[in-house]
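Here is one chain, start to finish.
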Amino acid sequence: MPIDWDKIAENAANSTDEHFSNQISGLTRLNDNEIQKLIFDTGISKQDLVTILKEVQDATKSNEAKARAINNIDKGIQTLVAIASKLI
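Its structure:
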């Protein structure tokens, strides 16, 4: 069953930080605390974080198209760098 990123983004504004973190951690390899810290450290909105994750997962786009789309998201690049730093 595909992930409904649009529905997650729609509900993000109304969900508590804890519920949102739990939902995203279930879809990624980040845990709840890492997601909350990522949002706090970067200042990205929950909706924009969902948009970034949706762009990254979109198999129909090239990496260049994904980079352009994420560059247009407020704090998008900063958030990707923060995620990447957890992997290295």
